[in-house]
Design a protein that fits this description.
The structure is a homodimer. Chain A is of the alpha/beta class. The first copy, chain A, is 34% helix and 18% strand. The A-B interface holds A 83, 85, 87, 89-92, 95-96, 99-101, 103-104, 107, 110, 112, 115, 117, 142-143, 145-147, 149-150, 153-157 and B 83, 85, 87, 89-92, 95-96, 99-101, 103-104, 107, 110, 112, 115, 117, 142-143, 145-147, 149-150, 153-157. Chains A, B: Homodimer.
């Protein structure tokens, strides 16, 4: 795929290497019409389970990208690598620290043209990602818009990612943040469980990411792809 | 001035609004042949002393830029605004926090085309800037190179700034960091006290910044401008 193709994506399935999915379900996900598969998760992600999932998704023709959560699980062979920069973390490790360690470790071998930095704002205080990254989630609309604008303008981030993992977010806030962005792509994830929530989220953000529901209710998950034709 | 002009600068004088400089000395600094005046400091910088120093420098035709250290001292009328992002700070405030607050406060009024983000690495543990920003200064060459590369590639920073404020840095390290950069400009500051140190620093970095010596030994400071013709 061409690098910039991701800017046209409206719908992604995010698959967690640490969760089981059988061949039939994976087949239906990959043939669903979604724009791409993103592989990544907050915990239990290893080189082994990532490479295994990648090889299964690679039987299909759609793009497959990795969202990197730790250095040990980086697998070659993805189309792109998305790198979270957690703008509202209280720990520099999640903003620049682990990234610096990765650059120190991999150096010249990093294919920068395949890297897509994501300016994350994690907004559900009860999710694992928020706990892991010690994120400051008590933010109002103007706080989040300021993080988004900062990510876009100061750090030239091509993607701003509003993450409500485990709960459906404040769509008014998401819509407002979108108004503040000029060229960054706005990703939204969290609590998309059916075509209704998918439609709402897709009306506010540029790209929606559908995750957990894949493992909980496959039929409902598959229906979210309808946002692509709306 | 055109925005991109700063990429040709070899030598800057950094003047601290909190320090006194008489008209004769300022005259000699501004007519020295330096590429530009940068106004900024770690402490005691206010709107009042900044606007006063700006108006005095504005009698001369050379570019005058501000390096912002706090939100209250931002004065309109500079040619460019340099914004430090302290990559090796242990406090998110110095990486994204204060910046987010500034975007929240100023919003649409921020002239992004006049903003130049600087990826700082503060490397002298005994300087005020290191204490203020709680910087992790115990870094080797590969650590600093990784921060620099991260700033350039992941955050698209146009300037990487190695700051040894108060002491002359490790020129081998500075030279090595320069080798890792493709398009970012490498700024060096700290301990430049005469033409000899200036020449050494200018051989390693793209742009050198001469600060304290202006207030301690004007003649020696003026001689550092010779690096421009070497």
């Amino acid at each position: 795929m061409r690098r910039e193709e991701y800017r046209n994506w409206r719908h992604l399935f995010k698959l967690d290497p640490d969760k089981l999915i059988n061949d039939e379900h994976l087949d239906r996900i990959c043939l669903s019409g979604t724009d791409a598969i993103m592989i990544g998760g907050s915990s239990g992600v290893t080189f082994e389970n990532t490479v295994e999932l990648l090889s299964r998704v690679r039987r299909y023709s759609l793009p497959c990208v990795m969202e990197i959560s730790n250095m040990d699980s980086i697998v070659p062979g993805f189309d792109l690598y998305f790198i979270p920069v957690v703008l509202n973390s209280r720990q520099p490790d999640w903003i620049v620290g682990m990234h610096q360690q990765a650059v120190k470790t991999f150096g010249h071998r990093i294919p920068w043209e395949m890297i897509v930095p994501e300016g994350y704002c994690i907004l559900n205080p009860d999710c694992e990602a928020a706990r892991l990254t010690d994120s400051q989630t008590d933010l109002d609309q103007s706080d989040v818009s300021a993080y988004a604008k900062l990510g876009e303008q100061m750090f030239q981030m091509p993607v701003i990612y509003l993450e409500y993992s485990g709960s459906f977010g404040d769509m008014e806030l998401v819509h407002e943040v979108a108004q503040h962005l000029n060229h960054a792509r706005l990703f939204y994830g969290g609590g998309i469980v059916d075509v209704h929530t998918a439609t709402e989220a897709a009306a506010a953000a540029d790209t929606i990411i559908v995750g957990n529901i894949v493992y909980e209710n496959l039929e409902a998950a598959l229906q979210t792809v309808q946002v692509k034709t709306e």
